[in-house]
Amino acid sequence: MTTTAKSRKTRVRRLPGRPGKDEPDGALLLRKSAQTVFANHGFKAATLRKIAASAGVDPALVIHRFGSKEALWNAVIERQALYLAPFVADLKHLQGQTKIPIRTRIEAAFRQMVEITFGEPECGMLIGQISSERGKKLDMLVERLLRPAFNAMYPLLVEATEAGVIGAQRLETLYFMILNAVTMSVSYRHVLGYFNDSFQDMDRLKEEMTQFLVVNFLQAPSADVLEKRGPCNTLARLNKGSKEKK
């Protein structure tokens, strides 16, 4: 090998802390790590050094990819908004399915909320941490993440209240009670394992959480509703149809 070839080989060696071409996308890795750090420490206490350590990279990579903690925060929120977009679309789709009983549609919405939350289990912790700080970061979180889902769910709650499926109450409070029950339970699901080993079964836990929402937030169905449902699982069919639509 000539001296020129050796020098060329030396120059293409990657810098410390920078992913090579065959490694996972660095920006995605940093966004996920940043979300974890923001969820555990909040925005103010989070540092680029903590985020880099969580990702297992050099802090210089964070600056190289995003430039600042502010830009990384914006990227985390936009990633979450994209993740939640199909859930918001599904809720809007349920609004128009007026031939299906509102109770069945609300139960489907509960199931979808549980499912989407399990996909991003740190969501509840992120909301809790940023809510305690207030300010522009909370404003952005509300407008990009919380408000779209709320606006899509609210008409379903109104219809359910008018039909007697949900008791008369302030629906804003009801929505956030439901949201808190789901997101915080998923965020701290590992704690449930201390009390019952069955909580390690994620599919079973999802089903139990959905049933918890139905039992605790909806009025008990009347006998004629139960009779009309019969052995056919309309809820499962509706969810199956929603997945096929995607």
Quick structural gist:
By secondary structure, this protein is mainly alpha-helical.
Write the layout of secondary structure elements.
Blueprint: H1 3-11, H2 26-45, H3 48-55, H4 59-66, H5 69-96, H6 102-119, H7 123-133, H8 136-162, H9 171-187, H10 189-192, H11 202-217, H12 223-229, H13 234-245
Q: Could you characterize the architecture of this molecule?
A:
By secondary structure, this protein is an all-alpha fold. It has a domain of 166 residues: Orthogonal Bundle (Tetracycline Repressor, domain 2). 75% of the residues lie in helices and 0% in strands. It is built from 13 helices and no strands. α6 runs parallel beside α9. The N and C termini lie far apart (55 Å). 28% of the residues are buried. The N terminus and C terminus are likely disordered.
